[in-house]
Amino acid sequence: MSNFPERKPHAVLIPYPLQGHINPMFRLAKLLHLRGFHITFVNTEYNHKRLLKSRGPNAFDGFTDFRFETIPDGLTPMDGDDGDATQDLISLRESIRKNCIQPFRELLAKLNDSAKAGLISSVTCLVSDCIMPFTTQVAEELAIPIVILFPSSACSFLSILHFRVLIEKGLIPLKGNGLCSFFSYLRECIYIYIYQGFKNKVYNRDIG
Q1: Which of 21, 38, 48, 162 is catalytic?
Q2: Which of 20, 52, 134, 190 lies at a C-alpha separation of 20 to 30 Å from 180?
């Protein structure tokens, strides 16, 4: 049997099960695949059914070294749910936190068995959404390197980055004219981090 699969890096990517998280992770998966990685893309069972429903049951046939796997999200389907509805976000978050770690362990064990049989390459790294905390625990248990992806926009990142400062300055929670103060501070941050950062980067590049 060829030992080619053993020489190919194998990345397991797992997004948070919302569209705005799945799409960036899928783009990253395609880029890694173009760079020669074997890819395992992990969806929840619920979202994978939605994906197949929208694209057709044979949508991913013929993908070489790019496979899809699923784990349960732990939620009980609602009566009348046809598998094409947005799940309750709070229930989904809590269920993922409590119920996904063991199915993820079992999936990695299955992939390891397939690698030992020479069917795929061994898992060499995990790429996890930043709000799938159980993945870091599993990575530590199995001694697999893990990369954390923050898939949100730059504005979201800046907002989260400054939560502590906003609270310390009394700008949030909003009260009275707090909204005006909040946006004034946000404009200041954007100027410092984007405009000044870009200016310095261009300057350093030009004189370097």
Answers
A1: 21
A2: 20
74: left (phi over 0), alpha (psi -120 to 50) or beta: left
Please indicate whether residue 129 is annotated as part of the active site.
yes
Statement: 4-152 belongs to CATH 3.30.2010.10: no
Q: Indicate the residue type of 116.
A: K
- The tens digit of pLDDT for each residue in 152-191 reads 777 777 777 777 887 787 766 666 555 566 566 566 655 5
Which pLDDT belongs to residue 70?
A: 93
CA distances from 86 to 46, 81, 101, 163 (A): 10, 10, 22, 28
The rounded distance, in Å, linking the Cα atoms of 66 and 120 is 10
Are 94 and 127 in contact by the 8 Å Cβ rule? The answer is no
d(CA 197, CA 106): 45
Is the model's pLDDT at 55 over the cut of 70? no
